[in-house]
Design a protein that fits this description.
The protein is mostly helical and 67 residues long. The chain has one domain. 90% of the residues lie in helices and 0% in strands. It is built from two helices and no strands. The longest helix has 45 residues.
Amino acid sequence: MWTMTIAYTNTALRRSGMADISGATAIEYAFIGTGIATVIIGAMFAIGDEMAEMFEMIQTTFEASIE
């Protein structure tokens, strides 16, 4: 009895489109993208001051070489 009920429910869900799991894949990719973006933003905040100092040093070096 339960086997027939499960088979009928599974068939009904497939016909209605409610068994489609492609939305779950999109959500997983969104989570992965959010995680990667969070890591990138965190790294930029962590090394941001060193990067600004490096570009200032490059700027002063170029300005000194022009004069």
